[in-house]
Task: structure prediction
Amino acid sequence: MFGLIGHLTSLEHAQSVARELGYPEYADQGLDFWCSAPPQIVDTIKVTSVTGQQIEGRYVESCFLPEMLASRRIKAATRKIINAMAHAQKHGIHITALGGFSSIIFENFNLQQISQVRNIKLEFERFTTGNTHTAYILCRQVEQVSQQVGINLSEATIAVCGATGDIGSAVCRWLDANTDMKELLLIARNQERLQALQEELGRGKILSMEEALPQADIIVWVASMPKGMEIDPTQLKQPCLLIDGGYPKNMSNLVKHPGVHVLNGGIVEHSLDIDWRIMTIVNMDAPARQLFACFAESMLLEFEKLYTNFSWGRNQITLEKMDLIGQVSRKHGFRPLLTVSS
Ligand code: NDP
Result:
């Protein structure tokens, strides 16, 4: 059995979902209540591969909300993730993806050192961040959708916002090795980590967001921002492809401007319907078929009986592992989402 640990994007979102799912006692509550709410299994999932194989999974709602980080309720945020992991393990789940901010909190607050949760000794090999598959899917989206919107990669400047992150750095490595892009722009706040990445790649210009955005033909958004930022489309090139892989989204506004194409990043489509309701809750356009690539990674590991923390730690994603997860992804009928809005 596979598992998905997820969270909602804001307190407002959580309240409306609680109402929809029939948890009225959660619906009218403020952040303090969510800080003390325990994790819950709220969905049972069946997935069929195009090979005919069927697997079953569970969605564990951690009850973490991004506002907990913004309001410095760090202890509550870390407890949410660790308790959700213990909950998944207690229910016998073999491999569980840590979706959205779950893996970011795990890493940033060094939760590896908390291995005992009440009577459960956490077995970290039962968890994966799902970031290898996410990075792979984002790269394929860059390659395939750029062609679709008339951007020639060999003449393109690609900006990666969140370049030094786990996903961002893997995207930079893959694009460098597998494409003939003209220029790579690296965006993040910490200059030391940016310089280390630039050294590792042997290329890439370090620029601020304000400097980079107007120069880019393609922007890959993978920054860990608890709240999205406003983008002024008149500052962007035309055509420009914006691939937003953030969860919550890095871009807070719906960008509608001639020549600016927006794509939901790190999303896969499955070839067959999935029996679940969780993707309706996160407002996916085609909820029976579309899902976050990190969640799909735990499904792939379950299909392949690869019970190992395939993606773990930070900046450990190799090109070989991206290729491997890409092969398995295709084998079971997943493909990158390629539909842009413009
Ligand atoms: P990491 O924490 O590893 O990296 C985050 C990156 O963002 C770092 O480079 C960080 O650098 C940068 N960053 C953070 N805040 C800002 C800011 N305000 N301005 C510029 N750069 C910033 O995160 P991950 O790589 O694990 O995840 C990245 C995003 O992808 C998250 O939004 C996450 O929720 C999402 N995600 C999506 C998945 C999917 O399936 N679609 C799966 C997993 C994650 P610095 O701190 O130096 O600024």
